[in-house]
Amino acid sequence: MIKISNEDNQYNFESLSQQEKENLFESMLENIGTTDGYLRDNIYLMRLVEMLESEPFTNEKLIAYTEICLEQIKYGLGEINSDSVFKRSFSALVLYFLVAINPQRNFLSNDLKQQIIHESIYLFKNELDIRGYVEGKGWAHSIAHYSDLIAGIVTSDFYDSKYNEEILDVLNINLQKLNVDKSCYIDDEEERMLFIVFAMLDQQRISEEAYINWLNDSNKTMLNQTSKNLEGFRIRTNYKHFYQSMYFRAKGMGKYKKLVKQLEVIINDLFVEMFVK
C-alpha cells in the first residue's frame, strides 16, 4: 500500500500505475478523518478532488467511492466532541465532488441518486457535533460541509423540488443547534447554509414568493418557541446572523428585491424582540 505523509505535497502521482492510483485514492478516502489538519485538508482532500477531476476511473470505481462516502458519513453520527466528526464531514465533501462530476460521467443509478439525497438530508438533520475550528486538529465544520453537499444536490440534474420542504425544515433545525457550551455558530456556518437557499432560488427550485412565505412562518415559529434564557437568546442570534447574511447576499446580487424588503422587516422586528421588549 502506498502511503503519503504531510511531507508529500510534491509527490509524483503521475509516476503511479492506474492500479496504484486507485489504491492510493481508496487509502486516502478511508483515512480522510485523520486529526492531522494539514494532511486532511491540504493533501488528502486536495488530492482526492484532483484525482476525481482528472483520473480515468471506471464508473464501477466511482460507484464504489460513492458507496464508501455514504457509509462514512454515518460513522459515529450522534457523537459530540469526538474525532469521528472529521470522517463524516470530509467524506461529505468528497461526496459533493462525486455529485458534481456525475453529469460528465453519468455513473450514478437512480437508486444511488435517491440514496444520496435521503442520506445527506438525514446527516444534515442529525449531526450533533457542530464545531467549526478545533484547536490542534483544524476544521471540522460539519454544518458548513453538509451545506455544500445539500446545495450541490439541489443544483444537480436529479434533484426533485418535492424535497424543498424537508430541506428547509432541516435548515430550521440547524439554526436551533448550539455547541455543548451553549455558544452559537462562530465560524460562518450561517453563510454556508445560505448556499442551499440561493441554490434553490437561482435554480428556480422554489419561487421567491414561496420562500418568503416559508421565511415568515419560520421566523414566527422561532419567536414563539424560543424562551428568553441564554439558550433562547443564542438561538435567536443564529437566526439574526442568518437573516443578515441573507439580506446582504440578496442585495448584493441585485435581485430578489421582494426578499430584501421582507428581510428588512424581519431583521428590524427581531431587533425589537431581542433588545427593546
From TrEMBL:
Listed InterPro entries: DUF2785
Pfam families: DUF2785 (PF10978)
Protein name listed in UniProt: DUF2785 domain-containing protein
